[in-house]
Amino acid sequence: MKKLINDPGDVVTEALAGMALAHPDLRVDAANRIVYRRAAPVRGKVGLVSGGGSGHEPLHGGFVGHGMLDAACPGEVFTSPVPDQVVEATKGVDGGAGVLHIVKNYTGDVLNFQMAAELCAEEGVRVASVLVDDDVAVTDSLHTAGRRGTGATVFAEKIAGALAEAGAPLAEVAKAGEEVVARSRSFGVALTPCTVPAAGRPTFELGPGEVELGIGIHGEPGRARAAAAPARELARVAMNAVHADMPLSGDVLVMVNGMGGTPLAELYIVFAEVAAFLREKGATPARSLVGDYVTSLDMQGFSVTVCRLTGDLTALWDAPVATPALRWGR
Amino acid sequence: MKKLINDPGDVVTEALAGMALAHPDLRVDAANRIVYRRAAPVRGKVGLVSGGGSGHEPLHGGFVGHGMLDAACPGEVFTSPVPDQVVEATKGVDGGAGVLHIVKNYTGDVLNFQMAAELCAEEGVRVASVLVDDDVAVTDSLHTAGRRGTGATVFAEKIAGALAEAGAPLAEVAKAGEEVVARSRSFGVALTPCTVPAAGRPTFELGPGEVELGIGIHGEPGRARAAAAPARELARVAMNAVHADMPLSGDVLVMVNGMGGTPLAELYIVFAEVAAFLREKGATPARSLVGDYVTSLDMQGFSVTVCRLTGDLTALWDAPVATPALRWGR
Q1: Which residue, among B58, B68, B15, has the nearest Cα to B330 in the 3D structure?
Q2: Which of A51, A125, A282, B113 is deepest in the core (most CB within 10 A)?
Q3: How far apart are CA A294 and CA B86, in angstroms?
Q4: CB-based contact (8 Å) between B121 and chain A?
């Protein structure tokens, strides 16, 4: 294993230190491992908190800032954040209008955010939660009861964040997040495994001529091991899986996401195939993201996430955002 | 070789098709392989054109847009663009105030941009050029007479682009680009080789316990093959090489750039070490970029580029920019 790290045990702490130095708009609580928007808590605004295992950068710390998250709680690599951490972040971003938790559907995350929400409620902080479970590849898995949460997390954080920034009340912000999840589906494909620093070896084996269809963001198995194939075929497998679960039509927001080790040019090639697929089905890729947003360390591969837009959701997507990984209009 | 491509011969064309679909602010001339800013030519504004081999995405197409490049000319992977392509782009962005070519110092790029500039001059288009040669690792190399051009290209494109956007004349825009280059130095480290799609195998061999110090962005050899080491030591090798060539002091703009296959969290770890080094030397990392900006396909590793800022350069860096890969203030 060759990685740009010092000690495997220090990866999360040292990466947070680098983030703090690189982004003056963020404030990092190193002791509690929380990335805050510098302005937090914003008085009268619903606070947004997300979090989960590290190793998926820029998720979640890279989405903290104006128009998106108020705080992110990174756990150890591929490990849930602890309840105390989430409690601290929730209290830290409560500007009096309550706090929304955006939680990816993994058993540990769900339990720890739930426990944190209960502890916060006891202290008088109103908390609502949105559970993201967009991955159509598998129902139940190694780390999940029900579908896994992946790329739709970015959409939910952006859209709920825009609504919170506009001053909407907690229930409305939560409802928008839920609507995004209900309208979104994802599917991922891996060309290579990833290597967790503390383990020092690949999370699974994949032959030189093989790919994993329906890969999870921690390297969990998907639907099938298959022979490597051209990008257009892999894109089609992913889009057929999405379309079979949620027929695509009208304007859609589509993300072609890199798993961390995939060159950007390859993601654009996949995006061209995805856009062609959408048009065949009578859908329009009205908004898009192409790049690394929800990664799995150094894994090569991609995932595609599609959200069926409404006029309201489109306007919220277009609203200004200023975070390390997503920025426009400011 | 597993890659998200269809045919190795179609990589550049299909990636450009994806870019065009993903970024409505760009206009792609597929036949000539040119990425234009949609508004080009901007009347009365100096046009900026850059280009070079593909495989370094987001460089250069990802830097086309308001406040940066007017056009980018991608060659085949790791291959210079041809003179006709550059001529077409240059004429296409000439708004009557002349055009600046920003050229990385590789023999093929230099020759082809020079030939293009001469052909343009014959047609009455005024062209000036800035040659980027910031890599301190080696003098002369496989593809270069003199130092190689790497990360400072991004700085020159951004700062000259801001000045052009502000309406400055060609000579002044060129001078700013030259000033950036004179004040910038880079050094790169590879943990793995990269694989050119058409070749189908790694560009060089690197043992499981080895790194290449001073790597070039096409996998060219650097200064030394060394044993893999912690991030803090590798960061220090890079920064010592930069500091030995150009003593660092005052405010600096620093980029910790990923080679394409490196997780973002690792780049933040390197950035923390780089920032510590700068402070030790009495310099301040006043502005920074951490992420993939000048890649080498799927190579794992990083490069660091430092520019000694002035007040003027800082203001130009901070000016609004709206491109796929760099965006703020709009």
Answers
A1: B68
A2: A51
A3: 36
A4: no
pTM of the prediction?
A: 0.98
Angstroms from B225 CA to nearest CA on chain A: 14
For residues B85 and B53, the answer to whether their CB atoms sit within 8 Å is no
Examine the residue annotation and report whether B218 is marked as an active-site residue of this protein: yes
A300:B2 CB<8 A: yes
Please judge whether B300 and A298 are an interchain contact, meaning their C-beta atoms are less than 8 angstroms apart.
yes
For residue A265, what is the nearest residue in chain B, using CA coordinates? B15
Domain count, chain B: 2
What CA–CA distance (Å, rounded) separates A175 from A271?
30
Considering the domain architecture, whether residues B112 and B197 belong to the same structural domain is answered as no
Specify whether B143 is catalytic: no
Domain match, B169 and B35 both? yes
CB A204 within 8 A of CB A221: yes
Domain end position, chosen among A135, A156, A182: A182
- Does any domain span residue B178? yes
| Partner B contacted by A15 (CB < 8 A) | yes
Domain extent at residue A65: 12-182
Along the 330 residues of chain B, how does pLDDT read in single tens digits? 899 999 999 999 999 999 999 999 999 999 999 999 999 999 999 999 999 999 999 999 999 999 999 999 999 999 999 999 999 999 999 999 999 999 999 999 999 999 999 999 999 999 999 999 999 998 877 778 899 999 999 999 999 999 999 999 999 999 999 999 999 999 999 999 999 999 999 999 999 999 999 999 999 988 999 999 999 999 999 999 999 999 999 999 999 999 999 999 999 999 999 999 999 999 999 999 999 999 999 999 999 999 999 999 999 999 999 999 999 999
